[in-house]
Amino acid sequence: MDELQTFFTKLDEGQFWVLYALCVALALGCLPATFYFMRHRRIAQDTPTSKIRSASQGFVELQGHARSFDDAPLRSPGKHRDCAWYDYKVEERQRRGKSHQWVTVTHDRSTYSFYVDDGTGVCAIDPQAAKMMPKTTDIWRQGQHRFTEARIDEREFIYCLGQFETEQGYSREKAIKESTRAYLYELKKNRDELLRQFDRDGDGEIDMDEWQRARAAAHDHARREVLDDYQPIQHHSLVQPFNKKFPFVVSGYDQRTLTQRYLIFALTALVGFFVAGTFTIVMTTLI
């Protein structure tokens, strides 16, 4: 402690106050960060894994493999790999005063949604709202430039926490109604076909009785299209939880590895709090 006091007394006034402000800010930031990571660790440990096919609406844990929409993978800008998501950054080494710094000159982050597929179904994920924690990060240099590319590769394992929502598709009757409407719309666009099929009196016009026949034919066509065993299509998505204390995380790490990382982050923040707090106390006694 005496050595710390001696070190601080040797600082000029400007250096002293800058360091004091930094220590206060670090202490105030590290303490809530400790609770943040410990809370996320506990949530990840306590939330059971759900299957997409039978998942309840609400906060869930899912795990499966990343899949691009329509099985059309993205191409990562740096390594040119098939992927579901990427974050690509190019930095340039520039002189700033007497030192050099890496300055970002290009940053490209994928905004396209993708699926998590667990074998029982697929669930759409919006990466713009999620905390992305990819397992794969490549860093390389060329001359004065440094390239960093984080990716979730196509079919890579992913672990997810978030709010599970399901949008129910059309019922059978609704599907028949929509199919009937689409069939009639196509007939209206093709007037020659409409007249050929339903202009019974040959006057070149469709009267009310002929239009009713067209509607009945469209309805019969729709009923044949929509089978008796038709099941509504469900669209699942994982979104930001309503309760902001719950995380929305997409990770390339499994639950065990992720919770270990949260623990390391929490302990690091706690050490930072104690170190910065000790410095702040010692410097406060010298004010």
Concise structural overview:
The protein has 287 residues and is α+β, with helices and mostly antiparallel strands. The chain is built from six helices and twelve strands. A hairpin with a 4-residue loop joins strand 5 and strand 6.
Structure description:
- The chain is α+β, with helices and mostly antiparallel strands and 287 residues long.
- The protein has two domains: 2-169 and 233-286, no CATH class; 172-225, no CATH class.
- It has six helices and twelve strands.
- The radius of gyration is 30 Å and the shape is elongated.
- The chain starts with a helix and ends with a helix.
Q: What are the salient characteristics of this protein?
A:
single chain, 287 residues, alpha+beta, 2 domains, 5-stranded mixed barrel, 5-stranded antiparallel sheet, 41% helix
